[in-house]
């Protein structure tokens, strides 16, 4: 009996030691565990799953509204926790740089010619133009993920509108969407009006609550936190003003010099050769631009803190190392370049957006020059989560680049803007490493960004660029109707311009 008891005791000790080793290897805060080499993806495991079965990662998608890519320089928490811990894409663009079309691309993984949303309003725009069943959240829901949305959805989404498919929790802004301090949210079926809260803080709280609840459920999750800042404020009466800041941020950036002031295109003296949407511009006020820049940066400080609290919440719940965090904006914003303030134009200031990705197998502290777009994100999310898109998508997964692998990529990107009337289209064009080209059929622009990085000289009528323009127009015609893989082609080199340009940047 004594020998039998001793053998049982020894076996139990072996099991206990193995269990303690496993617990030790998988415990500790997320930041502490990140110090090792790139590791296999480990995410939240569904209850009842086999203990040896690989678990699935989570994903949190943080979106801002009208944020310039250089605004990120004034968000130190976001830079430290996401850029320094992941990959920063330095040439990311919103290929349809207007709120609703950009968000429709993020909801569907498709360009506007395929998802139907070409503008913020009118018969070709707004939430009414989107099929609410064609929302990428269904991919994750059907694969066993819990899903939550908090914040600003598509323009024109009202309290009585149908809840888009695929969301376990739905907490979208409805009335007072752009007011910051007087707004309503759907409340996942329990609508609520807020009159004494700051919208960023409310979205932050709802995001963290969803993360905590999902993490404790043991199921994998996808959470979208779509913020309003730094979009200008629109009161319920329709008045437009600068975005308000939280009280602790009202003294910040008062003397901050806008980066736009250092752009040769700022308040461009002669815009007579520019597209019609720039030719209308009057000289801009430096004081007004400086005031708007200050207000925008102040409003983004609450988003910066929200990113910090999100990472802290993920860490406290023990799922930080198992979660991809993606940060970007729906479009960029011009602050006086080419005499223009706003978006919905095909200039680099409106097209360029920040894009940061951190996660389980993402290279840390890296940058990538790939010419990526918002259309690439839904299929990237699907690849990272191991789920299959349920319809044809127009983007390319960025997962290989995030893991530090080389990946072939398109050399020409479709860019476009829309109208509320007619066929719904305005200027549509293409962007390559060297050129930016577009037309509405009459009004045409062509910039050689190698020689003219500030896009100040329109070469559309320059005979030396005739072959260049012809090649880009061929690509444009093919891409305006593209779908799926046809949106991601490698066309090859663009012809070199002939010598003897009559209107070069130095002429």
UniProtKB/TrEMBL annotation:
Residues 1-21 form the signal peptide. Pfam families: Sulfatase. Keywords: Glycoprotein, Hydrolase, Signal. Coiled coil: none annotated. PROSITE patterns: SULFATASE_2 (PS00149). Residues 57-387 form the Sulfatase N-terminal domain. It comes from the Bacteria. Gene3D superfamilies: Alkaline Phosphatase, subunit A (3.40.720.10). Belongs to the sulfatase family. This is Sulfatase. It comes from Nocardioides pinisoli.
């Amino acid at each position: 009996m004594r020998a039998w008891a001793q053998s049982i005791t020894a076996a139990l000790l072996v099991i206990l030691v193995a269990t303690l080793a496993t617990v030790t290897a998988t415990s500790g805060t997320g930041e502490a565990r990140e110090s090792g080499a790139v590791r296999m993806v480990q995410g939240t495991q569904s209850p009842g799953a086999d203990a040896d079965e690989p678990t699935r990662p989570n994903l949190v998608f943080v979106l801002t509204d009208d944020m310039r890519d250089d605004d990120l320089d004034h968000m130190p928490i976001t830079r430290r926790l996401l850029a320094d811990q992941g990959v920063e894409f330095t040439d990311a663009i919103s290929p349809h740089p207007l709120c609703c079309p950009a968000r429709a691309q993020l909801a569907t993984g498709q360009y506007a010619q395929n998802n139907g949303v070409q503008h913020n309003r009118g018969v070709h725009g707004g939430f009414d133009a989107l099929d609410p069943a064609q929302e990428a959240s269904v991919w994750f829901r059907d694969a066993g993920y819990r899903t939550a949305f908090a914040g600003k959805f598509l323009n024109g989404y009202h309290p009585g509108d149908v809840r888009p498919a695929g969301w376990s929790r739905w907490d979208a802004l409805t009335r007072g969407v752009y007011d910051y301090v007087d707004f309503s949210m759907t409340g996942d079926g329990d609508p609520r009006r807020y009159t004494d809260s700051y919208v960023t803080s409310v979205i932050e709280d709802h995001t963290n609550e969803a993360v905590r609840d999902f993490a404790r459920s043991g199921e994998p999750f996808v959470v979208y936190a779509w913020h309003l800042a730094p979009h200008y404020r629109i009161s319920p009466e329709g008045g437009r003003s600068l975005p308000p800041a939280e009280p602790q941020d009202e003294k910040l950036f008062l003397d901050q010099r806008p980066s736009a002031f250092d752009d040769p295109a700022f308040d461009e003296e002669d815009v007579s050769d520019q597209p019609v949407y720039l030719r209308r511009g009057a000289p801009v006020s430096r004081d007004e631009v400086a005031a708007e820049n200050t207000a925008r940066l102040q409003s983004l400080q609450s988003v910066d803190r929200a990113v910090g609290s999100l990472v802290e919440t993920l860490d406290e719940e023990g799922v930080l190392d198992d979660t991809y965090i993606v940060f970007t904006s729906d479009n960029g914003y011009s602050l006086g370049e080419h005499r223009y303030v706003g978006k919905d134009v095909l200039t680099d200031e409106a097209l360029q957006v920040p894009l940061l990705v951190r996660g389980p197998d993402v290279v840390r502290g890296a940058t990538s020059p790939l010419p990526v777009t918002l259309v690439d994100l839904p299929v990237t999310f699907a690849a990272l989560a191991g789920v299959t898109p349920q319809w044809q998508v127009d983007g390319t997964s960025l997962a290989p680049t995030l893991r530090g692998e080389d990946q072939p990529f398109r050399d020409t990107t479709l860019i476009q803007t829309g109208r509320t009337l007619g066929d719904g289209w305005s200027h549509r064009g293409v962007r390559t490493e060297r050129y930016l080209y577009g037309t509405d059929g009459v009004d045409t622009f062509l910039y050689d960004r190698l020689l003219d990085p500030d896009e100040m000289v329109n070469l559309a009528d320059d005979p030396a660029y005739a072959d260049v323009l012809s090649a880009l127009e061929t690509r444009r015609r093919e891409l305006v109707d593209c779908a799926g893989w046809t949106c991601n082609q490698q066309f090859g080199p663009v012809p070199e311009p002939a010598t003897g340009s009559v209107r070069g940047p130095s002429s």
